Each structure stands twice: as C-alpha cells, then as structure tokens.
Amino acid sequence: MPRLVLTVIGDDRAGLVKALAEVVTAHGGNWEHSQMAELAGKFAGIVVVAIPAERGDDFVAALRDLEGLMEVSVHPGAEAEAGAREGWQPLTIDLLGNDHPGIVNEVTGVLTRHGLSIDTIATETRDAPMAGGRLFEAHVVALVPPTADPVALRADLEELATELLVELAVE
C-alpha cells in the first residue's frame, strides 16, 4: 500500500483526531505513525497512513470534506532506501536554559556542520519557577553519520552551550 504523509491543523477541540481516523478507516487505510499536539490554540500534526492504491483518490477527496474542521495536506511518502542510513548512530541532546531568540538556529547549525540528520525535535518554553522569565527546553534525537568526528561534535556542542548559557546533556 502506498504511504501518504498528512499534515493537519485546526482549531483545538475535541474530535479532530477521531474525524481524521474515521476517514482513514473508511478507505481501508492504516494509521502507521503520528506526532500531534496542541500548539497556541491550534491542534497540529503529521500523520503517516497507508492507503490501498485503488482508494487513494477517493481518500484524498474525502479529506476535503474535513474543511472547516481542519486543514489537511497530502504528500506522497518516500520509500526508504535500503542501507541509506547504515552505520548511523542516534545521539540524544537535551538542552535547558533561559529563553532567547536563535537557540534552535544555533543548535541546528552545529548539527548541520557535522552532517547530522534530526530524527525528532521537541521544544517548549515555560515560566522559570524561581528566577522569573522564561526557560527554553529542547529534546533532540539526531542521527550521526559514520563519517562524523564525535569528539569534534561534542566539543562544538559544549562550546555552544557555554555561548548560549544553557545546560546541555549529550548521550
């Protein structure tokens, strides 16, 4: 079955995921993977579904019936190339510090310079309980290619943590 990547967003309210799941099920599809969350009063996410090829057009048309409830964009999924990420190792990065513009840009800049690919990233800001202000927190899982220099990568991340005045844990 072809895999489709759906991006969804709508005003946060009960029943959004159920409405989408009903359309997937009605077209013989399988909900394979998703990441969804409430963000700033909106409910947004990405969903990977497998839909029988002969039902794909009807499925996409049925998604249009969800307009008014949520916006859904459909993108064809790519088949994973065998061995494309062979030897790549996961690296987990947890970051916590005072919030200020540019943190994600700086961290991802280091990862990009070392050839890492982000598998997942979750970020949030929250009130600092004792000091006032806002805290920024990030949890990143990146894939490290076999050609990367782990010592240089760690040194660059530690230098960045010092520059940004954040706590950084790398595993």
From TrEMBL:
One BP annotation, GO: regulation of DNA-templated transcription
SUPFAM superfamilies: ACT-like
ACT domain mapped to chain residues: 92-171
Gene3D superfamilies: 3.30.70.260
One Pfam family of this chain: ACT_6
Record's protein name: Amino acid-binding ACT protein
Source species of the chain: Intrasporangium oryzae NRRL B-24470
